[in-house]
Amino acid sequence: MSQSTPEPHPEEHPPPGQPQQGFPQQPPTGASQGQAQQPPQGYPQQPPQGGQALPPVAPSEERTWSIVAHAGGILVGFLAPLIVWLIYKDRSARLDDQGKEALNFQLTILIAYVVGWILTMIVIGGLIVFAAWVCTIIFGILGAMAASRDEWYRYPFKIRFIK
Q1: Cβ-contact 57, 92 below 8 angstroms
Q2: What is the pLDDT of residues 53-110, one digit of tens each?
Q3: DSSP string, 142-154
Q4: Is 140 among the domain residues?
Q5: Residue 20 included in any domain
Q6: Which residues constitute the signal peptide according to the record (predicted)?
Q7: Number of domains in the chain
Q8: What is the pLDDT of residues 24-45, one digit of tens each?
């Protein structure tokens, strides 16, 4: 009886010094085993909790995403600042701050909408909904304009849900 060797699994490594068929080839690294390679310049030294290191955000991109966080609230409510903040919070201090600022404001406005719709049985509910809508438009535009000038915008009122 002939004995055959089992096919190796791709995640296994071949014995040192003996490349075998079926094992993936390791690209040459230029560094000896046991030495860590440095990430390219401009990348963080340590990746965030088991993930890959992400490049920092360029200033022009910071401006653009800051505008999206503020103006996006006019169209889609809290979703635009939430998405911007979740994606860029670890890569940019400005987007972390402005994303939280816009998100807190939009969540405050959401509460005003809910309270207003509950109180629509009384005339005051319609006024609350209208005031919340006007504040969303005015302060969203002011925030987007400040972001386009590379300024950090603070809303005049909000409940700080995310610190």
Answers
A1: yes
A2: 678 888 889 999 999 999 999 999 999 999 999 999 999 999 999 999 999 999 999 9
A3: HHHHHHHTT----
A4: yes
A5: no
A6: none
A7: 1
A8: 444 444 444 433 344 444 434 4
Q: Which two tokens stand for residue 72?
A: 């996006």
Tell me the C-alpha distance between 163 and 155, whole Å: 14
Angle at 107 between CA 155 and CA 142, to 5 degrees: 30
- Between 4 and 110, residue with greater pLDDT: 110
Residue 111, helix vs strand vs coil: helix
Q: Where are the alpha helices (DSSP H) in 27-92?
A: 59-76, 79-88
Question: E strands within the chain?
Answer: none
Q: Are 125 and 117 in contact (CB under 8 A)?
A: yes
Residues 6+ apart with CB under 8 A from 43: 53, 54, 55
For residue 27 the two structure tokens come to 């690209």
pTM check: above 0.85: no
Cα–Cα distance, 129 to 131 (Å, whole number): 6
Q: Is residue 78 part of a domain?
A: yes
